[in-house]
Amino acid sequence: MLNFKRHKAAVLLAAMFALAFMMCGCSQNASAGAGAGEFISCLKQNCIVAETVEMENFNENAPETYLYTKLHISGLKDSGTEDKINKAIEEKYSELMSDGLPAYRGISSVIDTSVKKSSETISMNVMGNFNDILSVLILKTVNQGGIHYIDCHTLNFDLNTGEQIGIGSLIQSEEGMDALNKLAAEDIDVIGKNYYGGDFYDPSQEYLMVGAFKGVKEDQKFYLSDNKIHLVFDYTNPEFYMTAFAPYEVAVGYDRIYEHLNLAAYLSSGDLYSESEEKYLLVYGSDEAVEAQLDVPQGSANVHFGMSCTYPPDAPDNIKAEAEKLSVFNSDLASQLKSEAASNAAYQYGYTNTVRVNRIGNYYNLIHSESYYKANYWGESSTGYVYDLSGKEVKLSSLFKAGADHETVIKDFIAEKLSYDFPDGDYGGKTLDEIYDEITFSLDTYGLQIKTQPIKFTMDLGETDYESSLSIFIPYDEFGCDQMTIFN
Predict the structure, then answer these.
(1) Nearest-angstrom CA–CA distance, 154 and 136
(2) Residue 259: phi, psi to the nearest 5?
(3) I want to staple 209 with a disulfide (CB 3.0 to 4.6 A). Which of 195, 379, 384, 442 is the partner?
(4) Is the distance from CB of 280 to CB of 263 less than 8 angstroms?
(5) Using one digit for the tens of pLDDT, what is the confidence trace for 210-262?
(6) Of 382, 376, 337, which is closest to residue 458 (Cα–Cα)?
């Protein structure tokens, strides 16, 4: 998701071309993990289509740096509700087209509005599309007179009625709002300066406080993503002073606020959609992680070594132990690389070993990757392991009901992925069955990530040969969603 503090306008330009359908997934009698007081493990996806329409420039003399997109949704049974949502989107678009400068402190003193804008974009993207809620992020990015500014708006719709919803309908208790404010304040404190009763002004800082944080407002700008609620602070929050004229975003993982967050508030028991297939997504845990302390040996002028091992603090002890066990420096390979590098000073050599554990739904992924590079060759190996909440390793077959033919689906995807490089079916000296017998996997939001053991690729003359694992994404619904168990 966007972090306005770190991403500049150039990055935001690319976002306007994104299309967020968020529609692959699985059919299953899942709980959607949505009730207040439950860990949110999965969410029910909406069966709507959100189309991004590229709009024409408002006049024929506008430069190519004026780019505009607008959303249009379809797929609701109730055409009146659908029209209501599209009308609200159209009205917001028209408002942004006619608006002047956003009301950031000091912006009118540094931007001459009589100067023609050198660039202007309006982008609309679906960020959350589940539990009968549609969450839209809108960005207007402008360069005028050498000054950039970003005007951000959010729209959150109840797909039952077409009405817009506020943050208070998802966090309905005073205790919940207190918890959200506490989490937001932890992030805001790192802006650079805390408010202790004085007015701060420092032009070297992009985000400053000119008053104590007053907490999330009733009409607070926010949007939802697959695993977080995103609070957008800007000129509508008077305690902030933003010298860069861009919003500041605080993202709070559902797993940090789940006791108070009711994402089932608008989940309908009826059939809202023209296509009524039930689909679900798995929810990632927060980004909070502990980094294991590892000794990384020293390289040399043209040899570089890297080691990393991270895991959630609440992961079962045996998973943490397994992660650290895999974080072993390959001293034999390192010695070989150093030896070769000493006589090939024009080339870079390196070796990395990375282990990463994350929570998704009611599971943990452990992904172990090792890679090396040297003159005219490189190699990479990636292995995935999945564990349940007790720390027991999960086998691939257990994701499917008895009799489900998941093997054929996976083999077809592997064969399709390798068909370009190996049209004769000889996959680097291995058969398809041999490759399948060695696969590992991890879980993603919308599908499985299948990982092969390293396969040797011989490239055309002048290109670098390599040996690498392949990561192959397979949407859950490709397996026949009623045949899967992970959403129970």
Answers:
(1) 6
(2) -65, -20
(3) 195
(4) no
(5) 888 899 999 999 999 999 999 999 999 998 888 899 999 999 999 999 999 99
(6) 376
